[in-house]
Predict the structure.
Amino acid sequence: MLPKIKMRVLLFLFQCSTLLVYSQKSNVDEARARFPDASAIYLYKSQEFKIIVEDGILKGVCKVREQILINKESGINYQTRYVSSNSFVEATDIIAFTLVPDNKKYVKKIVEKISQKDDPDRSSFYDDVKSYSVVFPSVQVGAILDLEYTFKYKEPRFIGSYYWTDYIPVVQNELKISTQNDIHINYLFFNKEVVDVEFTKEAKKNETIYKWETKNVKPIIQYSDAPNIRYYEPHMIFYITDFENNKQRNQLLGTPKNLYSWYSELQKNVNKTEDKRLKKITDSLIYGLTDEFEKVKKIFYWVQDNISYIAIEDGLGGFIARDAGLVCSKKFGDCKDMASTIHEMLRIAGIKSYLTWIGSRDIPYTYTDAPTPGTDNHMITSYLDKQGKWNFLDGTGKNAPIELHTSFIQGKQALIGISPDSFLIVTVPVKDTSVSQTIDSVTIDIKDNLVTGKGKATLTGYDMLDYLYHTQNLSKEELQDHIKGYFSKGSNKVVFFDVVTEPSERAPLKISYNFSLPNYVRRNQNEIYINLNMNSTLSLEKIIETRTTPINFKHRTIKKLVTVLNIPEDYKIEYIPKSVRFGNEIVGFQSTYEVKNNKIILVTDFYINTLLLYAKDFEKYNKVLTEQVKANSQVVSLIKK
């Protein structure tokens, strides 16, 4: 009976201490006065890590505490909270209750039932995430939601990260890490300038305690075109570098070599036995070819075309590639499985290639600065051609030619496994603007108030791939809407018809179409006015003055519209706008008019020459926009002969 009595005493003390805190209603009033417009407010948010060696095993435990004040009706959406658990991080000891305001006191309503269910990522065929659903009772404006739980880390390499901001304000935010003195950690603070953080470090006899604390932090401002919050929100990552066990020093993380050693060890038993079926496929693909690069292309394209991407996250299965023979027989796999298959088929073909770990552009870290599993989330195969150029073969990049690595790894460091104990770190190049272009050429005629036209568009590089990805599963009606948005002409009254997309096999995509546009021409007695800048998608968008969050672009690109106006027989030119060009190293445009063979030709384009636009360059960007708006508002004037 003693353990049960002890547990009841602890719960009683915990409940009393909680009620004592909230008997001081002034703290709540102060928070509401400081953040009056917030739907909800974190009164308190904390994580307390304890890292120890016990029975020769390195262990990590984290106690999490959250207290959310419902400030407005819209904040009642926080009534349901979720706690996730998986093979590496187990969630336990969940305690939750609502403090319901009742005059000058709070009435405590305990969450009596916590539901558990599988909670797979929607992009995954299978993952091992379990989700605990915590539904707070009696939630109303002024109520406080109190949630506490514990994380147990089964793989210490996944400790950990912490964010100092959230989508609602945070009054008090604490991170505490306690380690035995023979366990060493490293921590990195990103975007620290955004918040004031108080840091203390206390060395005791048997442990070292690190503590960070912030107060009254404003919420995140969300933008749909922003990069991942890790690029601009203040946060930390921390990891165990080494620890002592039985008087032996054990390296865990801290250098790229430490990380690669673990990755290499995980893959050591992959593709140990050659699969006969896979060998037969490989031999048939390269039969008669003598050029090595052509063999690589054949194998790479076969995997792209024949293996479907399905994410599978199941414990270490999320880190260990599956045998190529199994992937080939099932015809599906995740990025690791595709990398394993390409790598094995190239080996069968007698061609050297290398398994490679890499992070997508959602992750701002490098292996040099942060050599942890949190720095990557993707796996590919790398091939060094005879000219000494690295080719990054990503089987998930459907329809992409071998020269065009997937856009989301541009500029990222690749960890290339050369042998079980050696590796290289190579930065993936960012493709130039000339690689990805949309060139839209139209010839138009004016009859009364109707503009009719014929168009031909050519899409290259990432522009081509984006178009294919977005349209591959659209119905006819949905495709019509997509074309109307992509090749925008004049106004939403435009109608496209006779749209033909030429089959494209990893080559520039060609699309032809006809369109009609009513009520676009303006008339005044004997004059006609028409704006030849007909595609609104070729216009930049102004950045608001209060914004500090960066803007993310998928890739560098050039967008061009060539408009040829056939001058009506009984009209002549009265006015043509001047040509103009304006830009800088980040963004720019030009608008050029020419008269030729009774036609007015306008060539207008703009370029984006960066992947991330930071606040320091917003003024440069907006200056270009201002000039572009002026140029795009210019009209051609025709007068009757």
The CA atoms of residues 84 and 131 lie 4 Å apart. DSSP finds ten helices and 38 strands in the chain. The longest strand covers residues 40-54. The radius of gyration is 30 Å.
